Amino acid sequence: MRSWTVVVAGLATLAVAAPARAGDPAVLYNQITDPVQRLYFRTAIANPNGSDVVYYWSGSAYIYVAGDSFKAPYPGAPGNHYPHGGGNGGTPLLGFEGYSIRRVIADPYNPNDFLLATREIVFYTDPATGDVVTSWTNPLTGKTTPVVPVLNEQLYSRYRVVNGELRAVTVVQYPAGGACAEMPLEGPVGASPEQWGNDYVWPVEVFPSYKLSDCGRYGITDPMGLKNGRYTSSEMFNFQVSKRQLWRVKHWDSAWSGWVPPARLSWNRTGPLLPWMCADEATYPAQLHYAVRSRLLRRWKDLPASFKAKMKGYGFPLGGLSFTDWQSAPQLVPPPPSAGSLALPAWDTSWSVFHAKVLAPMGQTWAQWCAAH
Hints:
The protein is 19% helix and 34% strand. By secondary structure, it is an alpha+beta fold. It has one domain (22-371). Mean pLDDT is 87; it is low at 1-20 and 72-90.
């Protein structure tokens, strides 16, 4: 018992002795007064000491066409609904395995804020074998194309602590006077989880809708098969952790301690077919449904050995990052577009990455690339 007391006292001393720099995520974390918000921080954001944490994902992607369930009318029925091989009886179209590696960093341009910096890589896999899929035949079009995994090199979110309350900041950009004007939206997060038995659950439900060419987005004028050039989807996150972890926050917590709660995450997304699938929405009004489960890991090394082997075997022919780079979250903050701006770089997506890493180097439009495959 005495040794345990010494450890706790040492952590408290470390917290007091640490330098209180403006914007330091650890300093701001220690200002959060609600223990539930602190637990949310460690569950849904990252470790306040600035070390990497990892959400490992595994799940499936399904295809859906309105008015048709994309399966045979009854088990064992001959034929299928599509001329190029549908009728999968509800089995997954593709497996989906990867991770998000994340850390909190200070924003040197806005010293009262801190950022969540994330990068994520996900492979599409064979549902039966788990092997990485490198080419794929679209059951709607019969076209076989190369598969481009999720290779999102940078994603940023902004947070701040105001009067002891953790708050998220989102910046909406819109055209004004030939430039992009900003409208910051700010609100508290994590204070009111749902309670499911012995667990806390924080639902995060978002409905992205934007044109690739919108002000502050990607400046991509090629619609890449999106109807009216507009991306629309729904993403449903449920971060879940045992209520018992709240005791740890209340009685044994310092921003500089490296503990990670055994959190879980479910994620579901409904969105358009991916750009490398070469099926424009106007002609093929189909959607992809993702059903994914995830768990929080303390570090990249804790990923399953089988997945790390898939990474090593892939070779990374796309993007500027090496195998080693993907093992850590971004550490640098790109400068804002103007002095005093709160805007962050637009998140990497499958569409922006496909345009930047596939189409642009080849000098091709989406239609030209699809015609060649």
